[in-house]
Amino acid sequence: MPIEKDELLHLYREMLLIRRFEDRAHFAYTQDKVGGYFHPYIGQEAVGCGFISVLRRDDVICDAYRDHGHFISKGGDPHAAMAELFGKATGCAGGKGGSMHFYNREIGFYGGTGIVGASIGLGTGVGFALKYCGSDAICLTIFGDGAVNTGLFHESLNMAALWELPVLFLCENNLYAMGTSLERSSAVTDLASRARPYGIEAETVDGMDLFACRAAAERLIAAIRADRKPRFVEAITYRYRGHGAADPGHYRTRQEVDEWRARDPIGIVEKRLLEEKIASDEEIEQMHADAVKAVNEIVAYAESSPMPPPEALHEHVYAP
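Given the sequence above, the corresponding structure tokens read:
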């Protein structure tokens, strides 16, 4: 189904905001303003924006550590996101989770986890809970290509297929598990084929193309809502920067990075906006400026927010 004009403009602004958010957060990390670690999402925006835009508010996301863009796409407050990176009390996890542990139950964002592949097991558990409670919501479980080689991947997909759980397993394949290329770490590089032995329908989509991701999301999520069975999708994408903020990415050539940048997901949407006369060059330039202004305000909010009080150390240790 074609994306309506207003929604396409919304998604474009969202992609711009995420790109600028990640760029400024990355810079803040180099200034020692961001504690822990930081995994930038720059270059992968089409996947998160495309798939999450099809979800309902009551649908749940279980995520990996590259989670900032997904949080914003699901409706999370970017001010609370940046404040969390800065370790402030106004953060989405009270400043105690940091980059890899974003959380907001009200919007169905159940983390952020720093353990490779953990979101696969957690998402399968959420899928079971949704089925058990009789909900027609689904769980979108997001992970990277490196997680496909974990034992939990196979255990979870087997359970999801056996118990017919409403889970969409979304593998963001950015071709490098940390600094190791897919070819050096996986004997079978067609990652969608890993799900089919469990009887799960699986496909591959161009993760640099918002329109391709959106179309796949509409089709797969509608199918899950109809038969309550899991699906698997491999979105082939590319991160422009290193695995994390401290990774210089020397294992990749400049030519390779430039070739992927030529297929920039934001650029693909801009081309469509111009071709279909949805926006002019001037309007696009203004939307870029608006994103920069918004992120400046977001950073100022994070910097001015208070640190968690000492007594917060003892909060949320045990479930009520």
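The longest strand covers residues 167-173. Try to locate this feature in the token string yourself.
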